[in-house]
Design a protein that fits this description.
92 residues, mainly alpha, 3 helices, 61% helix, 0% strand, Segregation and condensation protein A
Length: 92
Amino acid sequence: MSKKTPDFEIRLLSAVRKTLISIAKDTMTKPGMRHPLTEQTQKMITDCLDIVVSRQVAIEKDSGTHTKMKPVYTDEQTVQSVSVDELKKTLN
């Protein structure tokens, strides 16, 4: 595999993920209204997003850049723990 192939794959996966998310956002309906996409199509979009994200995580793990970060919502309280020893190291 050439050096450019992983970069291309990363760009491709990112573009596909962004496109599928935009489709989901653009077709979102108000509660009680009929959704313009069939349930089967909605499931296919979800399945594709799952595959894309799984591959992105695999690439990140292989390259050593994967973090186990999860989205943080603005209305959620977050708790961050810091080791006293680590804090002392940064202050010295």
